[in-house]
Amino acid sequence: MKRLEQPRLWRAILIAMLVPLALIAFWPTPVDEPVSGELAAFLKAIHSLGFPRWINYAFVEATANVVLFVPLGCVAALAFPSKRWWQVAAFGLLVSGCIELGQELFLHDRFASPSDVVTNTAGCVIGVFAIRAIVRHLKRRQAQRQPAMNLSKNGQ
Question: pTM for this structure?
Answer without folding.
Answer: 0.86
